[in-house]
Design goal:
The chain contains twelve helices and no strands. By secondary structure, it is mainly alpha-helical.
Amino acid sequence: MGNIIYADKRKAEIVIACRELYQKMNFKEITIKEISEYTSFSRPSIYNYFATKESIFLEIFREEYAFWCDDMDGIVKKYKKLSVKEFASKLARTLENRPVLLKLLSMNLYDLEESCSLDELTVFKQEYKRALDTVEHLLVVYFPHMSRADINKFIYIFFPFMFGLYPYANVTQKQKEAMTSAGIKFPTKRVYDFAYQTIVSLLNNQGE
């Protein structure tokens, strides 16, 4: 995991605790009470930093976009040139390394964002914009022949695609049993595989 520096270490403790709980529990199961029991804070103390549980998750979400952007910036720093397949592999790997980001993307973001303040949401959207800008920068660096229309097409398809990446690559046992009973062959590919194939396909079908 990357490093986010907080001016207030107590706020960081709350965020870290929520992250750790999210590895063992789902979003609905986690409450402010659960978080308080996992930290040295009482529930009223947590409310001094975050008004809602959703606000804490939005902060984790913001961190995840920041970590992903840092990973993508590392590609540009390390490689001057990349072929389509090499680029797809590098970018797909950054997503595979961010399971929490992908898991959060698979949630109902409308309700999550509606439960946060405008200031919190604005800070989050600023990090989201950085992600958009970073992907665009990668495309400009490695594929300078791409038109503005091609770049926009890539971004407008790739970012919505990420919303379904986690559930497609992480099928639960219950889902497997249900799909088997329904006669559906469930996917057995990893995040990397789905992302790699999609990126290659988008880059090889420019101008269409």
